[in-house]
Design brief:
0% strand; 55% helix; mainly alpha
Length: 191
């Protein structure tokens, strides 16, 4: 859902695509698209009726320590990224200032990103293809039928092996024994 909302926010899809995707009668199969990044998604609160949670001092202290450690790691990574951005901009401006007058300076400003969710979209070099015309994955019913056919095939395979074993137990056991010995010899030769 979030990936589709990001596509709508980036003006790649129209808002009408949401009810179209949710209508399983006319659209039983989901178009293939990349999932949204999990980074901005947060489970903020859960409500449980007739349940109250109690916290001990030690538990709260441990939670604070863990979350502060996570926060510190993210702050450090953010500060490093900001420092690299600043260094790149300074190097670029110094390079532009040192060019002699014979070269024409390109006064194109460096542009920051235009929206918050844009970095979360996955870009490819291929032109964008609307969700309405994309290849779709299997529907729920198609997946069930596929699983059932695999189960039936596997069951018939095992039934055939049981019949073989019951008709000629000595041959079946010797074949299994030979296969096991070959596998053991192969494993020993690798050592």
């Amino acid at each position: 859902m979030v990936a589709v909302l990001f596509l709508i926010g980036a003006k790649k899809e129209r808002p009408e695509v949401v009810p179209w995707l949710l209508d399983v009668q006319t659209n039983p199969r989901k178009p293939l698209y990349d999932m949204a990044s999990e980074l901005p998604l947060v489970l903020y609160d859960c409500g449980f009726e007739e349940i109250t949670f109690t916290y001990s001092h030690e538990v709260v202290q441990k939670l604070l320590y863990n979350f502060e450690s996570i926060w510190n790691n993210h702050i450090m990574k953010g500060m490093l990224s900001r420092a690299f951005i600043g260094g790149i901009i300074n190097d670029y401006q110094r390079q532009e200032d040192q060019k002699d007058g014979s070269e024409i300076k390109k006064n194109q400003p460096l542009l920051p990103q235009q929206c918050d969710y844009e970095p979360l979209l996955i870009y490819t070099k291929a032109p964008y293809q609307s969700l309405a015309v994309r290849t779709c994955c299997m529907s729920y019913e198609e997946k069930l039928n596929s699983l059932n056919s695999r189960k039936l095939a596997l069951r018939s395979f095992h039934d055939e092996r049981k019949i073989e074993a019951s008709e000629n137990p000595d041959a079946f056991n010797s074949q299994r024994r030979e296969a096991a010995l070959k596998g053991l010899a192969k494993a020993r030769s690798k050592q």
